[in-house]
């Protein structure tokens, strides 16, 4: 499966989700490739590799730009740049499914509408993953309720809460599973992987 992570906003958790979801699949024994499509190379840096190639995570490789071939991999994740650019269009064309990581804030709803207008193949849309969720703010719960009302089961049940361990892991060049496999962020990304699997199975029927 080729899964793209798309949002035209930056800093919403695309790279963090791409890295840790890819690592969750690799840990489950799947040959996995993470394609770093952002010229800033944050996905590669997050995994401690500059030029692409194997990572510290068994079964997980990284490449810079679009992969030349995906034959050797069971799963390929495309970490997109924060723009509705030709590169993002290309990723949308190449992928089997795409995910939208979304931070539950008011402006995000508007951005989401633009994003969905940009998409030519809405049937490939796997759903919205709520990221950097600040459970202490009442407004967060209100926005999540609105999103669930509007988009129903497109919104994943798993909500990726704010967890400083996730940003620490990035600065150590590790996935959350190497850095601290018992922290809440690791548990949430492991749970997200299960939910992605489940959604893909349902859609495949
Ligand atoms: N759930 C989270 N909790 C705490 N920090 C997070 C979380 N998700 C992402 N971050 C941090 O927020 C910043 C932006 O995340 P990133 O994944 O790079 O976003 P994007 O790829 O959309 O620009 C990074 O510093 C990252 O470490
Ligand atoms: Mg990024």
What do these coordinates show?
The protein is an alpha/beta fold. The protein has one domain (2-204): Rossmann fold (3-Layer(aba) Sandwich). The protein has eight helices and seven strands. It has helices at residues 14-27, 42-46, 86-94, 106-118, 138-151, 164-171, 176-179, 184-204; strands at residues 2-5, 32-36, 53-54, 60-64, 75-79, 97-102, 125-130. A seven-stranded mixed sheet has the order 3-4-2-5-1-6-7, with helices on both faces. A hairpin with a 5-residue loop joins strand 3 (53-54) and strand 4. The longest helix is centred in the last third of the chain and has 21 residues, at 184-204. The two termini are 15 Å apart. The structure holds adenosine-5'-diphosphate (ADP) and magnesium ion.
Described by its quaternary structure, the protein is: single chain
Intertermini distance = 15 Å
Task: Tell me the name of the CATH homologous superfamily.
Answer: P-loop containing nucleotide triphosphate hydrolases
What is the CATH architecture assignment?
3-Layer(aba) Sandwich
Q: Assign a percent range to the helix content.
A: 40-55%
The secondary structure category is alpha/beta
Order of helices and strands: EHEHEEEHEHEHHHH
How many distinct helices?
8
- Low-confidence region ranges: none
Tally of distinct domains? 1
Mean pLDDT: 95
CATH topology-level fold name: Rossmann fold
């Amino acid at each position: 499966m080729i899964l793209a992570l798309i949002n035209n906003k930056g800093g919403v958790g695309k790279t963090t989700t791409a890295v840790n979801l890819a690592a969750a699949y690799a840990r489950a024994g799947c040959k996995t490739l993470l394609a770093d499509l952002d010229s800033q190379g944050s996905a590669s840096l997050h995994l401690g590799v500059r030029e692409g190639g194997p990572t510290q995570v068994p079964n997980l490789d990284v490449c810079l730009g679009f992969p030349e071939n995906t034959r050797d991999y069971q799963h390929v994740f495309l970490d997109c740049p924060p723009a509705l650019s030709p590169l993002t269009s290309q990723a949308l064309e190449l992928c089997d499914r795409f995910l939208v990581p979304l931070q539950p804030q008011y402006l995000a709803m508007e951005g989401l509408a633009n994003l969905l207008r940009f998409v030519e193949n809405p049937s490939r849309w796997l759903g919205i993953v709520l990221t950097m969720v600040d459970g202490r703010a009442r407004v967060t719960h209100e926005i999540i309720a609105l999103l669930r009302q509007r988009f129903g089961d497109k919104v994943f049940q798993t909500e990726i809460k704010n967890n400083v361990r996730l940003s620490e892991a990035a600065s150590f060049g590790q996935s959350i599973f190497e850095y601290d496999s018992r922290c809440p962020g690791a548990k949430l990304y492991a749970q997200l992987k299960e939910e992605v699997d489940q959604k893909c199975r349902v859609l495949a029927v």
